[in-house]
């Protein structure tokens, strides 16, 4: 937290004050820093909305009447389901993108309150251990959340953020059940005046359904983070937001003027005249920027020298589809399918998977969707996959080097066959590609291709309508082995996609989840760049499409280097697409090629970073 007392704010026209009277001064300016979550700037009066504390839970409490506790739990579940249904009814007042985003999460909550792993675990704690309903709910939800967080910490990056969101789902449902068990009321936002800045200790994802973006101009909270579900909800609503501004509720007061800068993460309470004037300019600048980026949505991603690029989006959850539509991305370059398995007690069958894939493919309106089959390994846990018989025995010492990705699916091909069949059925909805994770040797790819064609033949024998040509089958390049063997793999794969997150980890032997070595993780390390170059050149020699879908694909500073290395297709978080497009439309290929030539002669990260920064400053 950064707290700064600014200069006194006085009226520009001074009045003579009575002798001996104290000078009239405004409250000192207070500045706080938090997570920049939703871009934009807003100014407005504060409305502080605090929530009554949840009931205390006695960790030593036991019951000798489990039937009564189960009855109380059942009533709390019914009440929670009714509340979620009422929240769904409110979605009609939100923008369409917000309706889809928030509605999808509310559906997740509704399923969790039905027959699920969570509910079974709570029942067991009540019946087996004699826990009270409140204690059983807290222990079970926290146990599931902690398991997910441990898994996420082992991987880092986007998977860690996804694990945090899934853990948050369990905790949110746990808090709702505990409040309903104790009949503790929830807060309301119905009395918010127009033009208000909403300030709270923390917003739960479901609170987003209560926010009217026509009345609330900005959101600032004491807790939370830019990668959690609440942040995703607020991005869908498009409200400038700063989360995790520590000390906020201690300084904020109803009616005080507040500036919220969702681009830098700064919050200013009682801004000085100078700060207020700068903020007004910022509001106007952001409005102009949004208009400019909005116009880019329909323009091609083309270099100034004429070369066409493909900017696609990564998709982790179907709820993120509205953000892809807003971004102007030309398709989905990486659809992660783990969401189907992570919180499920049973395996989604072929028809259910096909329906979900078809809906996503259809939403893309003719743009290609690249579906990666489930990438599951020793660092992740899924009750559905474990019940399906997938064993990771022996992977506890170093899960990153154990049975994971394609090698695990080939050991238990039934899961892969079901997913292949579902994707093939859904392929009639639009263009689709199928991608295999963690391919390291050619025989793995050949075996997977044999399964793929066998599944297609089975479907055709059953009368399922498929296209004359099957969707292309490609691979992720995520290890040094795959990058070095790029020529051989490209002869077998119909397309390649470089995943720089794992490629960096394996190349540098760095676990981002370890605080001791995390600073050594850097995708701009010359060794990583040379592997990217090797894989790209191998694909081009074999006339295979190749893309890059790691975090650096969404960094406008780095994309010129990647273009210079020969890449023309990138997949990134949806929010990064407009800014990357803005940069590339001002670039020439020759400039990118010269940058790449200089960078590939560098021998350390600092030198590489300096060259990239100098190039960005000059464009």
TrEMBL record:
One protein family per Pfam: PEP-utilizers
Domain PEP-utilising enzyme C-terminal: 292-587
GO BP: phosphoenolpyruvate-dependent sugar phosphotransferase system
A GO cellular component annotation in the UniProt record: cytoplasm
Catalytic activity: L-histidyl-[protein] + phosphoenolpyruvate = N(pros)-phospho-L-histidyl-[protein] + pyruvate
Span list, region Disordered: 1-29
Family the entry assigns: Belongs to the PEP-utilizing enzyme family.
NCBIfam families: PTS_I_fam
The protein's name: Phosphoenolpyruvate-protein phosphotransferase
Biological source species: Gluconacetobacter tumulicola
């Amino acid at each position: 937290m950064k707290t700064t007392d600014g200069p006194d704010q006085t009226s520009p026209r001074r009045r003579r004050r009575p002798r001996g009277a104290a000078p009239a001064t405004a409250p000192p300016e207070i500045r706080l820093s938090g997570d920049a979550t939703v871009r934009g700037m807003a100014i407005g009066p504060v409305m502080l909305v605090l929530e009554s504390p949840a009931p205390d839970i006695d960790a030593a409490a036991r019951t000798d009447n489990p039937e009564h506790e189960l009855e109380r739990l059942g009533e709390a579940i019914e009440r929670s389901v009714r509340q979620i249904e009422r929240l769904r009814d409110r979605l009609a007042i939100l923008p369409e993108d917000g309706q889809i985003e928030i509605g999808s999460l509310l559906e997740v909550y509704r399923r969790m309150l039905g027959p699920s792993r969570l509910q079974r675990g709570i029942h067991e704690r009540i019946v087996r251990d004699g826990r009270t309903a409140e204690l059983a709910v807290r222990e079970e939800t926290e146990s599931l959340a902690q398991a997910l967080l441990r898994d996420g910490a082992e991987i880092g990056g986007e998977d860690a953020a996804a694990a945090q969101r899934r853990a948050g789902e369990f905790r949110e449902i746990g808090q709702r059940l505990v409040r309903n068990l104790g009949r503790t009321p929830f807060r309301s936002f119905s009395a918010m005046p127009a033009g208000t800045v909403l300030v709270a200790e923390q917003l739960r994802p479901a609170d987003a359904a209560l926010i009217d973006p026509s009345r609330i101009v900005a959101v600032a909270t004491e807790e939370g983070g830019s990668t959690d579900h609440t942040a995703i909800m607020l991005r869908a609503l498009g409200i400038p937001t700063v989360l995790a501004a520590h000390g906020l509720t201690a300084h904020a007061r109803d009616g005080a003027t507040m500036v919220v800068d969702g681009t830098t993460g700064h919050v200013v309470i009682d801004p000085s005249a100078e700060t207020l004037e700068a903020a007004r300019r910022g509001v106007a600048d952001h409005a102009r920027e949004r208009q400019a980026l909005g116009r880019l949505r329909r323009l091609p991603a083309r270099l100034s020298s004429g070369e066409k690029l493909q900017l696609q989006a990564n998709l982790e959850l179907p709820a993120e589809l509205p953000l892809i539509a807003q971004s102007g991305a030309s398709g989905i370059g990486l659809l992660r399918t783990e969401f189907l398995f992570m919180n499920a007690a049973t395996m989604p069958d072929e028809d259910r998977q096909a329906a979900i894939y078809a809906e996503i493919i259809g939403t893309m309106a003719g743009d290609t969707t690249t579906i990666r089959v489930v990438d599951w390994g020793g660092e992740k846990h899924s009750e559905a996959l474990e019940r399906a018989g997938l064993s990771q025995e022996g992977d506890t010492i170093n899960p990153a080097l154990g049975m994971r990705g394609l090698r695990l699916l080939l050991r238990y091909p039934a899961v892969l066959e079901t997913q292949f069949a579902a994707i093939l059925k859904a392929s009639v909805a639009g263009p689709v590609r199928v991608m295999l994770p963690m391919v390291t040797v050619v025989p793995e790819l050949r075996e997977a291709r044999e399964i793929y064609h066998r599944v297609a033949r089975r479907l055709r024998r059953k009368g399922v309508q498929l296209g004359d040509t099957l969707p292309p089958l490609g691979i992720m390049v995520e290890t040094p082995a795959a990058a070095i063997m790029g020529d051989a793999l490209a002869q077998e794969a119909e397309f390649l996609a470089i995943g720089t997150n794992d490629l960096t980890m394996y190349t540098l032997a760095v676990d981002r989840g370890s605080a001791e070595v995390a600073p050594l993780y850097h995708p701009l390390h010359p060794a990583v760049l040379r592997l990217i170059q090797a894989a790209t050149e191998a694909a081009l020699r074999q006339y295979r499409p190749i893309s890059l879908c790691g975090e650096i694909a969404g960094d406008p500073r780095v994309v010129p280097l990647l273009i210079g290395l020969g890449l023309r297709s990138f997949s990134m978080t949806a929010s990064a697409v407009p800014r990357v497009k803005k940069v590339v439309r001002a670039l020439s290929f020759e400039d990118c090629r010269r940058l790449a030539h200089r960078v590939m002669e560098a021998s350390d990260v600092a030198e590489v970073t300096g060259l990239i920064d100098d190039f960005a400053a000059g464009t």
